[in-house]
Amino acid sequence: MTEQTERPLAEPRPLGEVRTWPRSFTDRLTAPLPGVRTLARLAREGRLRPSAESLRDLAGLPVEPGPLPRVDADATAVTWAGHASWVVATGGLTVLTDPVWSRRILGTPPRVTPVGVPWENLPRVDAVVISHNHYDHLDAPTLKRLPRDTHLLLPAGLAAWARRRGFTRVTELDWWEAVELPGPAGPVRFDFVPAHHWSKRTLTDTCRSLWGGWVITAPDGRRVYFAGDTGYGHWFERIGERYPGIDLALLPIGAYDPRWMLGPVHTDPEEAVRACADLGARAMAPMHWATFLLSAEPPLEPLRRVRAAWEATGRPRGDLWDLPVGASRVLTCAT
Question: Using an 8 Å Cβ cutoff, are 113 and 136 in contact?
């Protein structure tokens, strides 16, 4: 008996529901958080950013900005704006994932590629989904550019943060919960699903809010899975069982070195390809690389490794959507 049969999808919850959550979500962690010894080792090794020699790779980072695809309400298209920021057109709605249009984020060098979609080129944004509250995924300056009646779909524990900033349509969810937004082709469903990660935005709020990914289901049944930030683990198989027929998985492949520290919370390219198989997804689009230098691997290494890992599986090359920053693809019935 599959997970889908044992545990049917939850009924959609009301939009804008005001809820009470536990003070901490540390019980959801799948690995211990870095401690003093970990940070001391990192300081000794000095492996925080790519080597000066590997930075010559920056000239080869793929950037091909283009116009957003024009799609009907019965089609789905994705455009990579960089890092974990996507413009997803589905069911007649425009959805942003973890939108970061800022040049800089706290504690990190400036982005090394431009935003793939100029802000002024965006259509009206119907909804934003956020995976967790780290600064490279929840960017206050970017969100401030949105109308305050934009739907914000958030992990449990983040609604108060958004409401303090004037947003009026704020919905927060626990894992395996969902909401629906009306669209011209019918309701678009958003399910919040688990991830192997954590949350922290200030010195005092470690794991006070949840973290996870999103499964976006169009009225015609096409499914896009947005992983957010995550390490590799059992959740991918569970998500694939509960949401069969995922058409496209947006999976992180960067910020993985040093592995001894980042392995529990960031997939490397080979693990991302394995996660795609666990999910049962028909196609994979790599993300979370070529934008901010968050770790020590050479800038182009994630792309080289994900291509090699994909080739080793024997899956069709066309099902790896290794898009340049700014590029788009339209999801068809047979990706």
Answer: no
Q: Domain containing 94 — which CATH number? A: 3.60.15.10
Q: Is the pTM of this model over 0.90?
A: yes
CA distance 190 to 173: 10
| CA pair distance 151, 132, nearest whole angstrom | 16
Q: How confident is the model at residue 334 (pLDDT cuts 50, 70, 90)?
A: low
Is 130:157 a contact under the CB 8 Å cutoff?
no
The tally of domains found in the chain comes to: 1
Residue 301, in any domain of the structure = yes
In a domain, 12, yes or no: no
Tens-digit pLDDT profile for residues 86-130: 999 999 999 999 999 999 999 888 999 999 999 999 999 999 999
HSE-CB for 197 with a 13 A CA cutoff:
25
In a domain, 46, yes or no: no
CA–CA distances in Å: residue 220 to residues 151, 207, 248, 321, 331: 22, 36, 14, 22, 12
CA pair distance 257, 266, nearest whole angstrom: 9
pLDDT value at 46 more than 90: no
Check if the beta carbon of residue 207 is closer than 8 Å to that of residue 26: yes
69 domain residue, yes or no: no
Structural domain of residue 136, as residue ranges? 74-331
Give the tens place of pLDDT for each residue, 238-281: 999 999 999 999 999 999 999 999 999 999 999 999 999 999 99
The span from the CA of 262 to the CA of 268, in Å, is: 9
Q: How far apart are CA 288 and CA 268, in angstroms?
A: 10
CB under 8 Å to 251, separation ≥6 — which residues?
Answer: 227, 267, 272, 275, 276, 284, 285, 286, 287
